[in-house]
Design a protein that fits this description.
It is a single chain. The chain is of the alpha/beta class and 510 residues long. The protein contains 22 helices and 16 strands. The strands form 5 sheets. It has a 7-stranded mixed β-sheet with strand order 3-2-1-4-5-7-6. Strands 11-8-12 form a 3-stranded antiparallel β-sheet. A two-stranded antiparallel ribbon has the order 9-10. Strand 15 and strand 16 form a beta hairpin. The two termini are 40 Å apart.
Amino acid sequence: MSTWSHGYVSDIGYTYGYYPELNPLRAIVPMLQEGFAVPTIKNACELGFGQGVSLNAHAAAGTARWYGTDFNPAHAAFARDVAQQCGSQVLIADDDFATFCNRDDLPEFEFIGLHGIWSWISDENRRVIVDFIRRKLAVGGILYISYNTLPGWSAHAPIRHLLAMHDNRMASAANSRVQNVKNALDFGSRVLEHSHGLKQNAPNIAERLSEISKHDPSYLAHEYLNRDWHPMYYADLEQWLEPAKVGFACSASYLDDFPLCLFNPDQQKLMDEVAGTPLEQTVKDFILNKQFRRDFWVKGARKLNSIQLSQQRGKQRFVLTTPRDKITLSISNYISINLMPEVFEPLLDILQDHQPHRVSDLCDKLQGKLNEVQIFSALTLLHAKNDAALVQDEASVESARARCRAFNRMVTESARHNGEIYYLISPLSGSTLNMGRIDLLFAAAYLQGQQQPAQWAESVWRILQSYGQAMLKDGEALQGEEANLAELNRLAEEFAANRLTALKALQIEN
């Protein structure tokens, strides 16, 4: 492990993931649902951006000027290359947190995002980041922070300790990092076989290790093998952030704030007892046994009055991204519930054209059937279920189109030989659409003017042939052109019936 890494895994790259909560636009819906004012985001910052997929997607698809750092120079180099190809204005550094947070060329930020890193850094770095938030987060600005949470991690924390100890004491320099991760997993499994008392106290611990073993070794190395790893109670995080003058606003995922899909009646009765008190979030985490929190905090949160809230909700635009016949009027979170057809069906009757609709216009069209609160609440749930997307204003959409096209061309071109990024970005939502490699190649064929699924299948088969590759089915490579085309045609029909709707609705271009 390199001396400049401060105990963080640096000899294997992080995964090329995208995290939608880092998109400032995602904050608008849950914050307005909770009645909070939302700032205009001019400058935004991501600390610890990994490979920079989220950073680059948001810089390309939005109007904010982005700044970010990741101490790993390989990560920064990849992120800079993507930014250059997109033509995005983004400052990408490979500074450690202490260096970056004390730069004299950084503006005040309306949005600062930290995905996960809080759990994997030292207390010294936490103090640096809190001071940075205090100095650089604008009044009214939003802090997004996610972290491993107690009590949810209590039962499974021994797994991480065992894996990290094996990696620290028993890993071989002659092996690759991937092999050392696999060896640690095998060793952990053998130890748990004989840990009868531990399994009695934590009966699911062996099953958890088995689930962990299915993940990408690169992810596991960063998730479990760093020197610092500190899951934290909500109250402890609140105490850490107190000097930064930020207060909790809401969950970044509204379904984590929607009580009907969280608590049974007895649990809700207990939550009602602590509603609005300092105990509320802690009791929630205990009842739900939360292992990971994704939250928005605000410096100087301001509640809107009814008129202001109506105006702010009314000007928002939404587009339906899921085919109408594929939308289920139900939610499965901690509890499964059914949604009210009398509220959602009239709304979906309008949204099913997959065009952007302003909330105020929806209210006019549905007057006498649904009120504004019902409409916005329904849209909030559709948004949280990823059946609908919030749409930027027209000027922002047009400004982002060229950068989004460049990003998407880069992604679809790299998918020809496998690639790293499996997301296309939308100028409408400022966010991404996640796709596998074959779907990306179908999308590329469609965006290049091919209209029929059979054409997409033929196009993808020619690409696979050129690289000496074949389709897999049931873990086996298919033999011959006929079998490969049959499988590709089946997948192309599925793409046409499902993903193509979102591609069109989000105006994703290549």
